[in-house]
Write a structure and sequence with these properties.
alpha+beta, Ribosomal Protein L30, Chain: A, three-stranded antiparallel sheet
């Protein structure tokens, strides 16, 4: 009996680095607007959104979401479209 070695197909999985969607402070938008926007766009619950708004206000920025660049880019664009300042790090 010949035993054939079956080679498992190699799966090339590109380990995608998790990135942070960073919201930056501005002097234009109100707390309520920022909170509502984080709830609507990022899926935060109101308490989480409020905490992020306070962190942004006091520290100048806050990571509001983690994910791949491809997942975060539409969220970043939506934040920008609402007049907020956001980057992906």
């Amino acid at each position: 009996m010949d035993t054939e070695l079956l080679e498992k197909p190699k799966v090339q999985e590109k380990a995608e680095r998790l990135r942070d969607l960073i919201l930056h402070n501005d002097e234009v938008n109100t707390f309520d607007f920022v909170i509502d926007t984080l709830v609507d766009i990022c899926g935060h619950n109101p308490l989480q959104a409020e905490q992020c708004a306070h962190i942004v206000h006091h520290n100048g920025k806050c990571g509001v979401k983690k994910g791949s660049y491809d997942d975060l880019q539409p969220l970043r664009q939506a934040l920008l479209d609402k007049g907020l300042s956001a980057t992906i790090d």
